[in-house]
Fold this sequence. Notes:
Number of helices: 5
Strand order of the largest sheet: 3-2-1-4-5
Oligomer: single chain
Shape: globular
Radius of gyration: 15 Å
Number of strands: 5
Distance between the termini: 8 Å
Strand content: 15-25%
Helix content: 40-55%
Amino acid sequence: xYILGIDPGSRNIGYGIISLEHSRLSLVExxxxxxxxxxxQDQIGEMVEGFDLLFRxxxxxxxxxxxxxxxxxxxxxxxxxxxRGAIALRIIQLHGxxxxxxxxxxxxxxxGTGRATKRQVSYMVAKILGVRGEVKPLDITDALAVAVTHxxxxxxxxxx
Length: 160
């Protein structure tokens, strides 16, 4: 089973695809969908193209996305919410329903505590997936952490 984890952003969208086979997790692919500057509609188009490529290249079975948690600047929150909405629509069009996890749920699933640092999450993601060193940048780390969190939930429900 291939699981796509998504960390939505307004400049970079982190993604991580992991494989869940017989209770083993492994890294398949991870990266960024980079959004260049320009008009908002053009940025949405770039994001859509990025997800179209991922779904054409990989047989994705499940999708999970990090929920918006907190931001200091209200303008940033609004833009991120618009991007997240566009991402959600495209995922529904390409795949169907997806799961959502907030950062606290992800930290608890990955490290056992909701107060974990980004570095602790990165360390545990690498350890769980058998990757040497830290997973960087943080957008990719967060996307993989969301995918691993979802994989843990899938295993609890008795899927393969």
